[in-house]
Amino acid sequence: ALNCLMAGAASDLGYPQAGEELIRAGWAYATAIAHRPLMAHLRLELAGIAYWPRPRQSRDLAESGLRYLPDGPNAAQLHLQYARAAARLGDPPAARRAITSAEQARERDYHDDLVEIGGEFGFSRATHHYMAGSAVIEIPQAEAIAIEELQRATDLYAVGPGPGEHHGYGCAALAHVGLAAAQLRAGQLDAAATTLEPVLSLAAGQRINPIPQRLGWVRSELPQPRYQRSSQAGELDERIEDITTESTVR
User: How many degrees, rounded to 5, is the angle at CA 19 between CA 4 and CA 214?
Assistant: First the structure.
């Protein structure tokens, strides 16, 4: 469990290779004690690190994790990681099936010691909607559904964690980034600028590696022809560039 936590920290600080080494160390311990929920969570952590550079491996790791944990909130998280990777690989039907499976896994009664620990080992309803929206946004012509999911996520983060849940500021920020990207694809520049404001206002020490990375994804939407003559789009692009040069990684 400690190796898993350190792996997440290493990855957030921009050292994915160190994160992978720590996960492999954690895997050795987890298999030695045959702790299936922890084995599943380590697969999930590694799938998250692999997602951007190696989406095929990310998909396969999530599928592997489900062999150890079929039910409960963390199984739902594995299904959603699979959905995100499948969507990036151009397989919308598989992504949609995985999103449905995630809802079903979450609804089934389940409890283990990792769920009891919570925090990094839990999976809130807000983060569930964030990950579902992150998968849907990769599907062509699905901006409206992505906006609905990601708006639900940001609303739940704003309300605060429910009973037994924990929220991390990183996932909340990434939900805003994803929502802004979906809004830009839908032509909603004003809404996207408002959505991004909490992220652009983060202190430099809070800009963990995924945040500037995903902001680059938002920035790639701004050169669209519909925004080329917009001063607001130009200002937003400039602000994103400024904060990505002052991230906690640097």
Answer: 105
CA atoms within a 13 Å half-sphere pointing along the CA-CB vector of 225: 0
pLDDT in tens, 42-57: 999 999 999 999 999 9
Cα–Cα distance for residue pair 36/142, rounded to 1 Å: 35
**Cα separation values, 234 from 223, 229, 247, Å:** 9, 8, 21
One DSSP character per residue, 78-115 reads HHHHHHHHHHHTT-HHHHHHHHHHHHHHHHS----HHH
Residue 170: Cβ-neighbour burial (10 angstroms; 0-12, 13-18, 19+): middle
- 7-38 per-position pLDDT tens digit: 999 999 999 999 999 999 999 999 999 999 99
> What does the alpha-carbon distance between residue 216 and residue 212 come to, in Å, rounded to a whole number?
6
**Biggest CA pair distance of the chain:** 60
Residue linked to tokens 């404001």: 197
What is residue 150's DSSP assignment? H
User: Residue 227: enclosing H or E segment and its boundaries?
Assistant: none
Q: In whole angstroms, give the CA distance from residue 226 to residue 234.
A: 12
Residue 42, amino acid: L
Smallest CA-to-CA distance from 178 within 208, 142, 214, 204 is with 214
Return the amino acid letter for 46: L
Using only C-alpha atoms, the chain has a radius of gyration, in whole angstroms, of 18
